[in-house]
Structure formats: structure tokens, C-alpha cells
């Protein structure tokens, strides 16, 4: 198997993955920090390395609409966006998942206006978490590359047919160069051969995205709920096959030093990478902490999460986005939700951090954990969620 | 809801596989006011036909498709000879 080891930021890594998946249609609108994904793909097409239709649309609403049409016509479609762009796509997100079109989209996560800020947090992708897409949060350029390939294989499975969003921290991951193992187009395509159904076909005419009354709406929605429930198992299989083929696999979540841990830190994406270092340092102080990093966020693999976390008494959850007006952050709620029917569950603490691109350092993570541990040891109730680091 | 298909029995992805299904959905039941036309005085100018957003009024054949007319009243408003009256639907 021919491989190359290239220095790539996550944005370029996912562009290489899309190229190797031989995407047929790319429609996107530039928005920082996503732009160089599609710039790189445009370059691949201009250089003759990728034979695809590149549609430079006038907005993100049109970008996803074009991908919806292309995918329905049987093309492997790709797009990428973030922040205001993802917000502008919002209604089309539901149409893509409702029409069950296996589109893959990369999101270089960035906060939402206002104030206008180009830096990272998950405000954009978390605001889109209820749109019926699969959401995978990655924590390295290599994982981004691998997740796009796995994403197409998963999305196009006959029993799935759900669009996939690959999310990662803007700049922190999107623009940071890392060594990435890149495979040949031939090998990638052999692992993820195209399986896009041609829904729009003149020989068998259909109307897609039909008008529907209350007597059928619920049934169509339930079809998506049912298909989503099959995603955790399907991704497990795709990821295992990927591991056998390419030698790397990730599972539905990452556990770091969890085997002998007494306490858990749970967070996603780039903050999870920093948390690994923080955990190593905390362990030198004798605190047995482990990292739980959800990779598949939606649909929530509830059984797996519950099995892992129910063994612990204290779970500290760091959220990189705000659920305005709610009592805590989105990741905390997703994790808490899996304990809905349990009489016994861990104590949870929740910190909001890294908003608008603010650094989350090793010391920040250690400090959040210590505050959490203090509350646990003193057996006192804690505020449901702490807005860590905001100036008073 | 009896007699309707379950979620397992309908095509996935919100699609209809047979053409013309709109004809079978009787949207006329949404109507509050019914356009009643005095066809004897109608001049067949066709303005109602042109303005009708649902394509439900046919002056040439003196016919209104009440299964699909939603009673918006545009035909009555546009009729230059005022032969269309909107009459309240009474159940």
C-alpha cells in the first residue's frame, strides 16, 4: 500500500481525503477558517488531480442546496463551512437529512456573531446538533483525514443514508500543521467505493422532499430516528474495517488512562489533546484522572457512554460552547441524558471554557479539575455550570 | 389515523413515487369562504384564471374545483365585472 507522510493542517488533510474519495461535486462558499479546504480542492481540480464539478456558489445556503441536488442525482458531494455559514445553511441541514442524502461536510468550528469573531468554539456545530446529521468531533489532522473517508463509507450504507458532519476546532486544528499519513486515491476508493443511490432518475421519476400533512410527517421523522439509532454500530464496524485496512482506528470515543482512573475528565476536540497533558501532570501529583473524549457526538451512543462512565463517582465535563439560557453546556447534557433512567450516577461538574478562541491551557484544565474535586471531596453541591475564566 | 401506512411502509427520504399525488390531497377543506360565480354574467375575460394561485377556477367551462380551492378570494377581488361572491362555508 502506497502512503506518504505529509505536513498538513486539518483543513488540507480533509481536502486530501475528499480528493481521494473522488468526490463528484464540491459546492462551497469561503468563510474563515474553513476557506482553505475548498481552495485546496479547487487547486486539485485545476491541476487535474481530481475530476469534479466545482460550484462557486453565492452563499452557504446555496452551497448545501447544490450538494443536496447533486447527491440526489447520484453524485458523491462534499462541502465545508463554519460559523455564520453553517447558520445560514440551517434549514438545508434538515432537508439533507430528511431526504436521506449521504453528503459529507467539514466544519472548522468557529463562534457565532455577535460580537463578530473568527476564532474557535463549538457554538456553530452545537447549534446544529439537532438537525439529524451524524456529528463526529476529531482531535487531530490525521483523525480529520480518516473521518472524512469513514464518513463517506458510513453515510452511503444502505441502512444509514444520513449526512455526516466532521467537526474540529478552527485555527487550533484547522490551521496547525501536523504529520499526516496520506494514502493513494486507489486505496482510499477501494476502502470506500462510491455507493450513492440515484434518487432523481428520469427513468423512475419521483418527487423528493414532498409536501406532507400531520398524518405522515411523524412517520417520516421516525424513519430518520430509526436510521440514526443504527449509526453507532455501523460506525464501529466501518472504523474496525478502516483499522484493518489502514492501521488506524478510533472507536466511538477515546479513553486515555481510564483503566485505573478514579476520576474522569470529559471533553472533545482540541481541548481533549491538551487534557491528555493535564492528566499526565495530575497523575504525577497522585490524582488518578482519565480522559473520556466522545468522537461520535450525534447520534449519542448512549449505551457505550453509560457503560464507561457509570463506574466513576466524579465526571468533570468541559464544554466549548454555550447553551444560552440552559442550566449547563451541550456536552454535559448529552452525557447526563444517558443516565436518565439510572438511580445511581456519577456526580457531574460542568465548565464552559475556550469561548471565542480563548486558549484552554494545561493549567486551566488542571484548575477546573481541582475545583471539581474539591466540591466532590467536601460533598457540597456545585453550581450546575461554571463559566470558567470569565473576568469579574 | 387508521388505514394509514406505518413508518416502515413509506418510501425513505420523503419522496413520492407516483406522479400527480397532489390531485388526491383535497386542500379545499382548508377553505373558510367559497367563491360562488354567477356564470351567466361572467364575460370569460380569464382574469380569475390568471390570478388564481392554485389553478382551480375555469371560466371557459364555468367550473370551480372546490376540492382544491382554498378560498383566498383573489378571483373575487380581481373580477372586473364583480360576478364572484365569497360565501362563508357553514359546516
Q: If you had to describe this structure to a student in words, what would you say it looks like?
A:
The complex is a heterodimer of chains A (392) and B (91). Chain A has 392 residues and is α/β, with parallel strands linked by helices. Chain A is built from 14 helices and 16 strands. Chain A has helices at 10-20, 35-46, 60-72, 83-88, 90-98, 123-126, 141-155, 185-191, 214-229, 231-246, 269-284, 302-309, 330-337, 362-377; strands at residues 3-8, 25-28, 53-56, 77-81, 104-109, 134-137, 164-169, 178-183, 207-208, 253-256, 263-266, 289-294, 296-298, 314-319, 347-352, 386-387. Chain A has a seven-stranded mixed beta sheet, sandwiched between helices. A six-stranded mixed beta sheet of chain A has the order 10-12-11-14-15-16, sandwiched between helices. In chain A, helix 14 links the parallel strand 15 (347-352) and strand 16 (386-387). The longest helix of chain A is centred in the middle third of the chain and has 16 residues, at 214-229. Chain A starts with a strand and ends in a 5-residue tail after the last strand. By secondary structure, chain B is α+β, with helices and mostly antiparallel strands. The longest helix of chain B is centred in the middle third of the chain and has 5 residues, at 47-51. Chain B starts with 14 loop residues before the first strand and ends with a strand. Chain B has a two-stranded antiparallel ribbon. In chain B, strands 3-4 form a two-stranded antiparallel sheet. Chain B is built from two helices and five strands; from the N terminus they run ββαββαβ. The model of chain B has no long low-confidence stretch (mean pLDDT 93). Classes of the chains: A alpha/beta (392), B alpha+beta (91). The interface between A and B is medium-sized, with 25 and 17 residues.
Amino acid at each position: 500500500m502506497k502512503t506518504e507522510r505529509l505536513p498538513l493542517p486539518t483543513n488540507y488533510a480533509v481536502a486530501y481525503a475528499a480528493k481521494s474519495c473522488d468526490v463528484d461535486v464540491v459546492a462551497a462558499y469561503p468563510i474563515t477558517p474553513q476557506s482553505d479546504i475548498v481552495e485546496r480542492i479547487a487547486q486539485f481540480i485545476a491541476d487535474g488531480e481530481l475530476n469534479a464539478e466545482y460550484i462557486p456558489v453565492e452563499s452557504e445556503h446555496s452551497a448545501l442546496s447544490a450538494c443536496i441536488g447533486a447527491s440526489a442525482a447520484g453524485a458523491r458531494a462534499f462541502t465545508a463551512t463554519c460559523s455564520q455559514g453553517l447558520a445560514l445553511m440551517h434549514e438545508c441541514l434538515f432537508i439533507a437529512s430528511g431526504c436521506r442524502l449521504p453528503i459529507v461536510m467539514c466544519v472548522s468550528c468557529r463562534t457565532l456573531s455577535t460580537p463578530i469573531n473568527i476564532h474557535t468554539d463549538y457554538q456553530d456545530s452545537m447549534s446544529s446538533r439537532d438537525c439529524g446529521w451524524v456529528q463526529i468531533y476529531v482531535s487531530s489532522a490525521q483523525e480529520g483525514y480518516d473521518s472524512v473517508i469513514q464518513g463517506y463509507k458510513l453515510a452511503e450504507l444502505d441502512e444509514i443514508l444520513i449526512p455526516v458532519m466532521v467537526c474540529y476546532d478552527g485555527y487550533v486544528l484547522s490551521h496547525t500543521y501536523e504529520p499526516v499519513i496520506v494514502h493513494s486515491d486507489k486505496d482510499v476508493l477501494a476502502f470506500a467505493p462510491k455507493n450513492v443511490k440515484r434518487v432523481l432518475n428520469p427513468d423512475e421519476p419521483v418527487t423528493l422532499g414532498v409536501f406532507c400533512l400531520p398524518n405522515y410527517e411523524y412517520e417520516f421523522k421516525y424513519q430518520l430516528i430509526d436510521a440514526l439509532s443504527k449509526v453507532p454500530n455501523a460506525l464501529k464496524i466501518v472504523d474496525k474495517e478502516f483499522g484493518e485496512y489502514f492501521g488506524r482506528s478510533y472507536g466511538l470515543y477515546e479513553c486515555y488512562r481510564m483503566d485505573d482512573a478514579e476520576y474522569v475528565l470529559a471533553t472533545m476536540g482540541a481541548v481533549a489533546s491538551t487534557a491528555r497533558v493535564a492528566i499526565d501532570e495530575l497523575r504525577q501529583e497522585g490524582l488518578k484522572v482519565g480522559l473520556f473524549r466522545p468522537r461520535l457526538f450525534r447520534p449519542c451512543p448512549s449505551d457505550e457512554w453509560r457503560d464507561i462512565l457509570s463506574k466513576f463517582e466524579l465526571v468533570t465535563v468541559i464544554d466549548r460552547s454555550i447553551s444560552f439560557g440552559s442550566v449547563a453546556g451541550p456536552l454535559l447534557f448529552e452525557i447526563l441524558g444517558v443516565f436518565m433512567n439510572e438511580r445511581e450516577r456519577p456526580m457531574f461538574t460542568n465548565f464552559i471554557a475556550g469561548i471565542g478562541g480563548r486558549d484552554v491551557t494545561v493549567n486551566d484544565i488542571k484548575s477546573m479539575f481541582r475545583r471539581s474535586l474539591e466540591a466532590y471531596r467536601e460533598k457540597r453541591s456545585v453550581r450546575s455550570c461554571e463559566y470558567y475564566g470569565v473576568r469579574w | 389515523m387508521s388505514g394509514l401506512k406505518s413508518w416502515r411502509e413509506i418510501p425513505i427520504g420523503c419522496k413520492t413515487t407516483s406522479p400527480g399525488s397532489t390531485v388526491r390531497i383535497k386542500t379545499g377543506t382548508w377553505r373558510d369562504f367559497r367563491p360562488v360565480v354567477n356564470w351567466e354574467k361572467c364575460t370569460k375575460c380569464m382574469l380569475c384564471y390568471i390570478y388564481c394561485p392554485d389553478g382551480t377556477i375555469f371560466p371557459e367551462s364555468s367550473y370551480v374545483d372546490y376540492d382544491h380551492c382554498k378560498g383566498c378570494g383573489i378571483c373575487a377581488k380581481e373580477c372586473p365585472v364583480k360576478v364572484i361572491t365569497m360565501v362563508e362555508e357553514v359546516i
